[in-house]
Amino acid sequence: MSKMFYITTAIDYVNGQPHLGHAYEKVITDVIARARRSLGQDVFFLTGLDEHGQKVQQAAQAEGKTPQAYCDGLAADWLAFAQKLELTNNDFVRTTSARHKEFVQAILAKLHAAGEFYTATYKGFYSPKEETFLTEKDRRPDGTFDPAYGQVIELEETNYWFKLQAHQQWLIDYIEANPSFVQPDYRRNEVLGFLKNNTLEDLCISRPLARLNWGIPLPFDKDYVTYVWFDALVNYISVPAAHGDAAVLATTSGYQPSTINSQLSLWPADIHVIGKDILKFHAVFWPIMLKAMGLPLPKQILVHGWWQKDGAKMSKSTGNVVDPVAVINEWGVDAFRFYVVRELAIGPDGNWTDAGFKSRYQAELANGLGNLVNRSLSMLKRYRNGIVPTRHDELAPDAAKVIADTKALLEQSDLQGALQSIWQLVNRANQYVDQTAPFKLAKDPAQTQRLDEVLYNLVESCRVLAVLLYPFIPQTAAKIFTQLNASGTPDKFSAATWGGLQAGHAIGDPAPLFPRKDV
Ligand code: ME8
Description:
Blueprint: E1 5-9, E2 12-13, H1 20-38, E3 43-50, H2 54-62, H3 67-84, E4 91-94, H4 98-113, E5 117-127, E6 132-134, E7 153-162, H5 168-177, E8 182-183, H6 185-197, E9 203-204, E10 206-208, E11 217-218, E12 221-226, H7 228-232, H8 235-242, H9 246-249, E13 271-275, H10 279-293, E14 301-304, E15 307-309, H11 324-331, H12 333-343, E16 350-352, H13 354-384, H14 396-411, H15 415-436, H16 438-441, H17 448-469, H18 474-484
Parallel strand pairs: 1-3, 1-13, 2-3, 3-4, 8-14, 13-14, 15-16
Antiparallel strand pairs: 5-6, 5-7, 7-9, 10-12, 11-12
Helix pairs in contact: 2-3, 4-8, 5-6, 11-12, 13-15, 13-17, 14-15, 14-17, 15-17, 17-18
Bound molecules: ligand ME8.
């Protein structure tokens, strides 16, 4: 039994429909998962929904539904959304499922027995909107709280707290000794800066049942439910536990998975993909929780930035939103996947503009890749009846460099860099058409052999490109393989080796990959 490559996304709150930010995170995670599989690794990709908490309770109430009925209704939409994005997730976690709730309770019981929690009474400010306690430090210079917190109330409440402070120096040392633990580097520095300049306050892990009932009951105190983060973060291990992952089960007696799959080894996660706003929860609270549970830490927390639209925050109330489903319905899922990955590296914030989207579609997909594949295959059909000529290696060195660079970039999860690398081959091959002018060669009987050479280089470049592009735009990669009538599927990186198309092979019928649109 060898450990699988285990990759996760954040689990989304089910208090509305998915938006561009959710779609982006899921797509980049899917590209990494597909790339790793293509490179030969066994991958387990987990995504899902965060269904407890006050916001869900209130949203359900507003619709006159029970919280569970409300969640079930929305979960169906989110599952359909995952399919729309062509995600290849291996499981889908819902925090209201029995397997997750039972595991969270087992963990809480274990940590309680180990003396990791204590009760204390808190008196001070509280943001119901963000479900968080606030202190004087959270006030802005003018004395007010950020409007993001909504109405801030004063509250006195007894709760359970998780001890964090004793682990502060350990965590600083760990992050310093493991540079790839939080990526990109500037996010790592942000966490280190926070840890070095603040004394960690203990984490409140409960809410009184009287105020919030939509949560997992604490197994040791029936008057409380667990606060969202102690519930949500645990999904990363509750799912491995439910599948019988030995590493997780070893630390949680009292939890019985319904199936034991002794072949499945997941924990520790290889990558948690998250957005910048939840960095502290993942890089500070989660490692300390895992340490207390006696589990190893994830290998990497990969932090992406936030999308805006036209330079402003996306907000339903102002109508400034990008609806990923509408974009996919109009332009196709591959165009959407391509744009978000190509436009934004994993790290900085991004800005969606409809003009930018259309311009990349037109220039890079329709005129770049689409045109290359369509004219290469059409010329082979027209001039050689669709039969592949003898192998010729004029573009092989260009392809070899792009293949090697792309592989290295995929292994570093530099997805934007990998697309830039792949487009070097797209551009090189398009330039090759212009330079060699096969339509002129076709008119000159003395150039028969030269035309064979050019056509081989073009169709073989298209085949290699399909393999390289598979993790990003899987439907397009499959279409290229079908049009080439190539054997096998484009999902094995090892097939990106020059010379795959054999002389005498008959290709299929070319068809436009990205129809040009009047925009
Ligand atoms: O935070 N651009 O859920 P969530 C890019 N349930 N990413 C964005 C974004 C934007 N405009 N808006 C949100 C939660 N995201 C918790 C997570 S994990 C154990 C629990 C990202 O629905 C955000 O950064 O508010 C996060 O990674 C994910 O979408 C879910 O956000």
